Amino acid sequence: MKFADEFRDADLARALGARIAAEAGDKHWKIMEVCGGHTHTIFKYGIEDLLPSNVELVHGPGCPVCVIPMGRLDDGIAVAHEPGVIFTCFGDLMRVPGSDGSLLDAKAAGADVRMVYSPLDALKIAQQNPDRKVVFYAIGFETTAPSTALTLMRAKAEGIRNLFVFCNHVTIIPPMKAILDSPDLQLDGFLGPGHVSTVVGIRPFEFVTNTYHKPVVVVGFEPLDILQGVHMIIQQIHEGRCEVENQYKRVVHDDGNPKALEVLARVFKLRSHFEWRGLGFISQSALELQDEFADYDAEKVFSVPGVRVADPKACQCGEVLKGVLKPWECKVFGTACTPETPIGTCMVSSEGACAAYYNFGRYSRARERERVLASGDRPDANGNGNGHANGAVAEHELRAIPVQAR
Amino acid sequence: MTDTVVQPGSGAAIKAASARIADPEQRVLERIAEIRKRKPSLREDAITMSHGAGGKASHTLVTALFGDILSNPVLDQLGDQAVLAVPGVDNVGIAMTTDSFVVSPLFFPGGDIGELAVNGTINDLAVGGATPLGISAAFILEEGLDVATLRRVVESMRRAADRAGVNVVTGDTKVVPRGKADQLFITTTGVGIVALPQRVAISRIVPGDMVILSGAMGDHGSTVMLARGDVDLEADLLRSDTMALHGLTAALLDDGIDVHFMRDATRGGVATVLNEIAQSAGVAVAIDEASLPVHDEVRGVAEILGIDPLYIANEGKLVAIVAKEHAPRALELMRSRPEGTEAAVIGEVMGEPEGMVFIHTGFGGTRVVDMLIGDPLPRIC
Predict the structure, then answer these.
(1) Is residue A274 a contact partner of residue A170, using CB atoms and an 8 Å limit?
(2) pLDDT value of position A302
(3) C-alpha–C-alpha distance, residues B227 and B223, integer Å
(4) pLDDT tens digit sequence for A251-302
(5) What count of other Cβ atoms lies within 10 Å of the Cβ of residue A184?
(6) Is the pLDDT of residue B2 over 70?
(7) Which of A208, B9, B100, B141 is at 20 to 30 A from A191, Cα to Cα?
(8) Is the pLDDT of residue B253 over 90?
(9) Which of A21, A50, A91 sits opposite B365 (nearest CB)?
(10) pLDDT (tens digit, 9 = 90+) per residue, B115-136?
(11) Of A118, A136, A131, nearest to A162 (Cα)?
């Protein structure tokens, strides 16, 4: 598959892993990937197997489903049960447990809950069902907010009055700041969120380098992107630099997408405060609809319970989201809390650290490493070695990595 | 590269890794492994769509409710087909299977509900090493259904049955009021004969066996997903792979190949079949991502929707577990037939970790491949 396979090359990965191992030295490195998409890639491709054990990836708060507090979900479920409502949302959200069941359970109990791939699908449903109230439960960071904004602008322009948005859009900077202010965690640098940066650009992350003196590298979502990002952070520190670098130049413009930012400003304003799962209330960390769009605001049009629900006591999603706990260190990980019967949000979304670890990472890395070492190399399907000695990749091949660092 | 490079996976690295993670993490993982071996219990109060997706929830429903209440020695095998003994006959048994078809839309590129019903029923018999003898078909029709639509479906069944050389020998029809069904549903039963003792049985799987997939994965599921029109994607070359596989299975067995087990990879995909194998046979399955056959169209659709082709449904592919020394011949034979031109050895059976499937990624890492959980939902950003 063109434009994807080039960024998944095993030989380049091995070479880059070896180079990282050489440059990392004896120091223990802790690098946080902010975005849940990165977490997913890391586990899906087994990237940690290619890193030396002293380079640790810490999974951050950027998973849109994971940060939704239980009370907000209960509000959504209450709206879904209102007569005449068609409730639409992204698929990941449907299995998230509220205090009394999930949206999937609400659907089984008779609520009209439909999975959509885009807010524009919700608009289409509204057009096709003029006698119904269609609610779109919007979640996500700056990545998905512009599509919600455009949908609302189109609904307004076309005079569609039966579409409502329950807005849970959040912004990435405040939780990063909360993590940096937290004394629990000592990080060496950040892998910045690639898709958020396509919208906001790389400059909003300068506070991390200026105030907190930690390097940031905005990276893409293919496995080589992430390995290269790790390498760039280590290089920055070795060279005494502390900058926001853009590894994902093939997609991210340093200034972001001005059109998308314009649309965001037209439709949304900052909320005074918003509750984040596990992180608590963070001021100015989320978006709500501008007054101009009040008629489309589900929170204003429907009466919602609006009750703040404490997370289940056993659930340690907050600590996992902040990177303080590894998924397996949570008391209920894999025992009471599994992807099929999740307690916390981190176990639901494929971008949640717990789900990623449970689904992809749940095997003994140590044993696997011993096996690889014992066999010298991984056998192919016919029992033969695959012909690549570990790490033996020429310098010119490394240079051929198809991503432009700077 | 210089001599001083510390290789990831070197002795020093393993030592460090063991010291850092082995103890507490390993303890957690072992506790989870123990929990996963317990018999699942059905916790939900109502049936959700997950119970029909063919993954973990379906598995729980079948074992914890149906298997529990209806338990008997034949059902307890939980095979694709039941094998019934004929009194007074030692060397031949009757194989029986049943299946329902509720696909939407009824017609899609490469097939339709009628063809699926015939091929799917034959395949459930064939993978047990049985020779299909006849099929029954029961129709639930929604009031208002076009007769032309019904005729088109039944004619397609006729063609599929003729192609396979297996007749639809009995049937039933019910009509329900408008809105109580979606156009038409079909339930089939297939009956066949199988030589005893059965050559193909999950208990025959042993470490060292090779895992062969009869062709590219995910064609059917992705075709239906696009045909439904929920996602604005088009892939002109994408076709359902619906196909009867009894010719292929018979060819393997007639050739004397030591096939230990076969299962067709329908709902839940290849990943779910491999997990069923690992759990039922008490073995591990290791697969190699680079060897997995997948058409480019399916890879593209899966990539865009954030779905793994390993979990996408097939309707004309089987997973065969074959004795290692017979694997090359089995592969050659499969590839020589139209049903298996793209067959590939995709992995091997190992002794441990028991009950687990893992994949060596093309990128050079290793990860777990679990059963399908929920429906294959796309990631949102």
Answers:
(1) yes
(2) 94
(3) 6
(4) 999 999 999 999 999 999 999 999 998 788 999 999 999 999 999 999 999 9
(5) 10
(6) no
(7) B9
(8) yes
(9) A50
(10) 999 999 999 999 999 999 999 9
(11) A131
Of B360, B364, B370, the CB nearest to A13: B364
- B25·A43 Cβ contact <8 A: no
**Minimal Cα distance from A141: which residue of B?**
B381
CB-based contact, B380 to chain A, within 8 Å: yes
| Cα-to-chain-centroid distance, residue A271 | 21
Contacts with B, A 16-55, CB within 8 Å: 17-19, 21-22, 37, 40, 43-54
Q: Calculate how close chain A gets to B313, using CA atoms only, in Å.
A: 18
Nearest one of B101, B157, B97, B168 to B127, comparing CA atoms = B97
pLDDT category of residue A79 using cuts at 50, 70 and 90: very high
- A387: confidence class by pLDDT, cuts 50, 70, 90: very low
SS3 A112: strand
Return mean pLDDT, chain B.
89
Judged by DSSP in three states, B156 sits in helix
How many C-beta neighbours within 10 Å does residue A82 have? 16
Nearest CA distance, A213 vs chain B (angstrom): 28
Contact B368 A395 (CB under 8 A): no
Instruction: Look up residue A379 and give its DSSP letter.
Output: B
Grade residue A18 by pLDDT with cuts at 50, 70 and 90: very high
Q: Among B8, B11, B303, whose Cβ lies nearest the Cβ of A18? A: B8
Say yes or no to pLDDT of B362 above 60.
yes
pLDDT confidence tier of residue A6, bands split at 50, 70 and 90: confident
Task: Please answer yes or no on whether B8 and A17 come within 8 Å at the CB atom.
Answer: yes
Distance from CA of A335 to the nearest CA of B (A): 6
pLDDT tens for each residue of B53-86? 777 888 889 999 999 999 999 999 888 899 999 9
List the one residue out of A181, A91, A256, A4 whose CA is nearest residue B305. A91
Q: How far apart are CA A317 and CA A344, in angstroms?
A: 6
Calpha distance B120→B107 (Å, rounded): 16
Helix (H, G, I), strand (E, B) or coil at B1: coil
Q: Which amino acid would we find at residue A151?
A: T
Q: Which of residues 14-73 of B touch A (CB under 8 A)?
A: 14, 16-18, 20-22, 24-26, 28-29, 31-32, 35, 43-50, 56-57, 60
Return all residues near A125 (Cβ < 8 A) that are at least 6 apart: A86, A88, A114, A116, A134
- Put simply, the answer to whether B361 touches A365 (Cβ < 8 Å) is no
What pLDDT digit, counting tens, does each position of B160-188 carry? Answer: 999 999 999 999 999 999 999 999 999 99
The residue in chain B having the minimum alpha-carbon distance to the alpha carbon of residue A95 is B374
What integer pLDDT is reported at residue B22 of this predicted model?
53
Q: Which of A329-338, B239-248, B314-323 has the lowest mean pLDDT?
A: A329-338
| pLDDT of amino acid A376 | 44
Supply the DSSP string of A65-85, one letter for each residue: TTT--HHHHHHHHHHHTSTTE
Closest alpha carbon to B14 in A53, A51, A377, A328: A53
Q: Do B366 and A46 touch (CB under 8 A)?
A: yes
**A242 close contact with B: CB closer than 8 A:** no
Q: Are strands A29-35 and A55-62 parallel, antiparallel or unpaired?
A: parallel
For residue B17, give the nearest of A53, A351, A392 by CB distance.
Answer: A53
Name which of A42-56, A267-281, B12-26, B139-153 the model is least confident about: B12-26
Tell me whether residues B10 and A109 touch, CB distance under 8 A: no
Q: Do A366 and B49 touch (CB under 8 A)?
A: no
Q: Which residues make Cβ contacts (< 8 Å) with residue A129, sequence separation at least 6?
A: A86, A162
Helix (H) and strand (E) counts in chain A? 16, 13
